[in-house]
Amino acid sequence: MIYKLLSVRLLLSIFFLAISFSLTAEATIEEGKKLFTDYCATCHAKNMTTDATGPALSGLEDRWSDYPREDLYNWIKNSSALIAAGHPRAVELWNKWETLMTAWPNLTDENIESIILYVNNPPVLPDKGPGIEVEKADNNWLYYLLFGLLITLAMILTRIISNLNQIAAIKEGITDYHKRSLLEILTSKEIISFLIFALVVLGAYTTVNNAVNLGRQQSYAPDQPIKFSHETHAGLNGIDCQYCHDGARRSKHAIIPSASTCMNCHKAIKVGSTYGTAEISKIFASIGFNPNGVGSYIENYDEMPEDSIKAIFEKWIGDEYLKDEGLEILDIEGEELVESQWNEIVKSLKNDHNKKIQGPIEWTRVHNLPDHVYFNHSQHVSVGKIECQECHGKVESMEILQQFAPLSMGWCISCHRETEIKFTGNEYYESYEMYNNELKNNQRTGVTVEDIGGLECQKCHY
Questions:
Q1: Interior CA angle at 220 toward 217 and 223, to 5°?
Q2: Cβ–Cβ under 8 Å, residues 81 and 75
Q3: Spatial distance between the Cα atoms of 350 and 356, rounded to a whole number of angstroms
Q4: CATH level 2 (architecture), domain 27-120
Q5: 18-44 burial string, b = 16+ CB within 10 Å, else e?
Q6: Which of 171, 104, 381, 144 lies closest to 255, judged by CA?
Q7: Using one digit for the tens of pLDDT, what is the confidence trace for 313-345?
Q8: pLDDT tens digit string along 39-57?
Q9: pTM (predicted TM-score)
Q10: Where does CATH 1.10.760.10 sit in the chain?
Q11: What secondary structure letter does DSSP report for 200?
Q12: How far apart are CA 92 and CA 75, in angstroms?
């Protein structure tokens, strides 16, 4: 009986050792990657070498090498406290960026070391666009090998315990002791109970892990019907975010701009700097603008047959090609270009729901909160004075738009705990008499979203 108990305890010890190893073996870089994604990626670039909302993290250790390691830990856990204490490096960072880093008091020193290790070994990003990592080698074979070794060890130790049980029985004078075979051991009640227990634990762990990540789509960068470049529009040409997404300042939704907004500029700019006629022609075809000649809107466009629309845009694409190439008639390459661009117009604007070229452009949604979550853009943009980049990253540098932040509940809560409201001179907050008086009397340095009820459940879940 004693040896049976030892056997079960041994199996349980090996099981938990396997779980521990699977969670911590190679844990530094892998854990660092997960922690970076959960805590750091909202403000720092994934390639570690370019600035984003926060500075590039490459060379982090060197920049803090003149100070004790604990200072770096304290900076990450609570930067505002270090700034208030007058730490030279903390004050230098604050003066340069003027953006308060979110405090992460729940991170341990070991967590931070894992993040630093990941920062020192960043993923290699392709040239295709932001947010897509090169597929890395699969190291799961290491865990499979470990699991196999542990199973083999368990079988050997079980066999040893069986032999010890036989020796103990002989010493006690038991002559009819039956030594169990390996098959009997593997099908015994103890082993089956252990396997059921292991499956329950592993199943629960997997279920909880998957539930936490359900609906998360950070770095999601889908293809769009039109290759719209935020880098060209918001970055190179300096178009303000709210010119196109004007709902952000006055309503719950930021809104996707209609083609008429695009036409404010593209009545004059008919040929794109990157794709020529290919992408802008899709806008013209959706809204009914004839770009030939001086350009004009087509009357009764909604009723126009597709062949007539095709003739208009094939002429437009062909004429532009002839002008660029200095030709009088289309060559084979030009004919193929015209046909290819027209096919792309049809493919981008027609689908199972819309059988016509005419009509709104159906963009693929990038950011999508669950239905039970209430979020109001105007509350953050007009009242809170939050810059778009705080949540959406440096959109002006994105050729392909991607979801920058995790948009998780923990991410929102951390922001509400640490973000100081633009309280002074903001008419919206005049009713908070106590906080205004405390600010005037220097009894507090700022008011956070948490202070005014920003962590109340009903604020976001209605």
A1: 145
A2: no
A3: 6
A4: Orthogonal Bundle (1.10)
A5: beebbeeeebbebbbbebbbbbbbbbb
A6: 381
A7: 999 999 999 999 999 999 999 999 999 999 999
A8: 887 678 777 877 766 788 8
A9: 0.60
A10: 27-120
A11: H
A12: 12
